[in-house]
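Quiz preparation item.
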């Protein structure tokens, strides 16, 4: 979610003022609530299992229908997480945290041709950051942890003009951010490009929309945004060039999702 904006005044704010931004209402990058595993706004159906084609002719018929096979899954994802990826999703950004309490992660974009096909690695691996205190299944506003789960990606924006994207994109000066992160890293430019993660928000709305369907205590403003060299308050951050690549690659018509959590949680 957005990181808290530190105004340039001489009384220096503590580093944990890191991830808040703009409007301050969007205390993104770290104030979120419990993460439902199903993707808000993207459907929650498990991937369909295509049937295998058996040998043709009477012999095959006598043996009955062939056993179904499952599409090739994304490496390291457990059955529970795989089942939460919508059947019609053809793009999945998988962000894997180093451990439950680590702020270091790796992002890989997977794609598939259709819901019957297996997933293929399309981009990455890329270095990423998540929240200062790691990950949680029970995310609450201000807990400095990133929610685990599968979430839709339906809108984008930023301080800079869109680098070419099919997402609805809002360029707005409210995405300007300043101040320092947890490790003294500069937050400037962090919101040059953002993609809203559909956690406790209205899918398709501007990333700046303050509406929190689950309530303010569950946080919100969880984004993918430009990495500033340190932990976030709850968001996922990627290098600027990778954010530009991602914005160009993701297509709302392909129901893109982000699958995120520490390695142990994603293996469940």
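Solution:
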């Amino acid at each position: 979610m957005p990181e808290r904006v530190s105004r340039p005044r001489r009384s220096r704010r503590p580093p944990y003022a890191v991830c808040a931004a703009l409007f301050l209402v969007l205390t993104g990058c770290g104030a979120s609530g419990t993460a439902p595993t199903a993707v808000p706004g993207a459907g929650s159906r498990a991937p369909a299992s295509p049937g295998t084609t058996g040998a043709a002719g009477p012999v095959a018929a006598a043996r009955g229908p062939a056993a179904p096979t499952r599409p090739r899954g994304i490496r390291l994802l457990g059955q529970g997480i795989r089942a939460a990826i919508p059947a019609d999703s053809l793009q999945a950004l998988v962000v894997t945290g180093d451990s439950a309490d680590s702020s270091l992660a790796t992002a890989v974009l997977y794609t598939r041709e259709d819901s019957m096909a297996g997933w293929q690695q399309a981009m990455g691996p890329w270095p990423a950051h998540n929240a200062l205190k790691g990950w949680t299944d029970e995310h609450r506003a201000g807990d400095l942890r990133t929610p685990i789960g599968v979430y839709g990606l339906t809108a984008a924006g930023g301080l800079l003009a869109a680098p070419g994207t099919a997402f609805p994109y809002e360029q707005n000066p409210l995405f300007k951010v300043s101040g320092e992160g947890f490790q003294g890293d500069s937050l400037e430019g962090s919101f040059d490009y953002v993609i809203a993660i559909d956690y406790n928000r209205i899918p398709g709305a501007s990333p700046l929309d303050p509406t929190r369907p689950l309530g303010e205590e569950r946080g919100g403003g969880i984004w993918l945004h430009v990495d500033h060299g340190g932990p976030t308050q709850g968001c996922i951050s990627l290098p600027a060039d990778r954010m530009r690549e991602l914005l160009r690659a993701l297509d709302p018509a392909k129901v893109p999702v982000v699958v995120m959590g520490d390695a142990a949680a994603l293996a469940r």
